[in-house]
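A student in our group prepared the protein record below, which I am reviewing. Thanks in advance; the entry in question is below.
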Amino acid sequence: MPRDPHVVMRNIDQRLFEQVEGARRFAFSEGAMPVKYKLLIAMAIDASHGVGDGVRALAEAAMGAGATKEKIAEALRVAFYISGCGSFYTAAEGLGDLLG
């Protein structure tokens, strides 16, 4: 997996990193929606945008928060329906050795 982009950006621009990290903490905090569902949404968006490493990282985080393989599959079905075949191939690339 490529180097963590947060580490790279923290080294380049600490102030920007702090802003991004604050937004991340806010977006993924417990609220009306459980964190695992927020992570599944983010994973589906990464699949739609062609970010295989993000799909994997977010799937792992979602599983750590209690998501099942079946929930991951269903989130990716939505990504496929909305975004098409590219999300299918991105998900397969990101999850192949994790869930395949």
Observations:
- The mean pLDDT is 93.
- The radius of gyration is 14 Å.
